[in-house]
Amino acid sequence: MNGAARDNSEYAVPAGVLGLKGPVEKPAPGTLPLRGDLAHMALAGIHLAAHYVIPHVHAVGSAGAGLRLNPRGDAEVFVQLAPGTRFELLDVAGEWVWGCPGPQGPSGWCRASELAPAEA
Predict the structure, then answer these.
(1) Which tens digits make up the pLDDT trace of 81-113?
(2) Which residues contact 113 (CB under 8 A, 6 or more apart)?
(3) Which of 3, 24, 87, 106 is the most exposed place for a label (fewest CB within 10 A)?
């Protein structure tokens, strides 16, 4: 994520003490941008995660992007994102990136090459 522009204007670190007040239903994989190890910053105080991430905002490239539940080429594409769609990048693992169009989801992995080049 070196050199990537971060859009801090939309998601701020919540003020005060964060806490969950009771049981929360775990969403299905691929719905909300929530994993056991991290979650979108907008979900802080709503869902529990080890880390909350302020996303790096990108756009889907001209060929579109296929979201997968796993960062593998043989994983099934469960959502196809149209070219130009907003993509909020939350994690990078080699050639794969994990993110979502927004905190409402869906969330998944796509190839970093499926995103539009960052503007300088």
Answers:
(1) 999 999 999 999 999 999 999 999 999 999 999
(2) 61, 95
(3) 3
C-alpha distances in Å from residue 56, one per residue of 26, 27, 28: 25, 23, 24
Q: Are 30 and 105 in contact (CB under 8 A)?
A: yes
> Could you tell me which of 100, 118, 117, 101 has the C-alpha nearest to residue 109?
100
Secondary structure of the chain in the HEC alphabet?
Answer: CCCCCCCCCCCCCCCCCCCCCCCCCCCCCCCCCECCCEEEHHHCCCCCCCEEECCEEEEECCCCEEEECCCCCCCCEEEEECCCCEEEEEEEECCEEEEECCCCCCCEEEEHHHECCCCC
CA angle, corner 33, sides to 29 and 38, nearest 5? Answer: 100
| CA pair distance 69, 20, nearest whole angstrom | 26
Structure-block tokens of residue 49: 């995660």
Q: pTM for this structure?
A: 0.82
Q: Specify which residues 58 forms β-bridges with.
A: 87
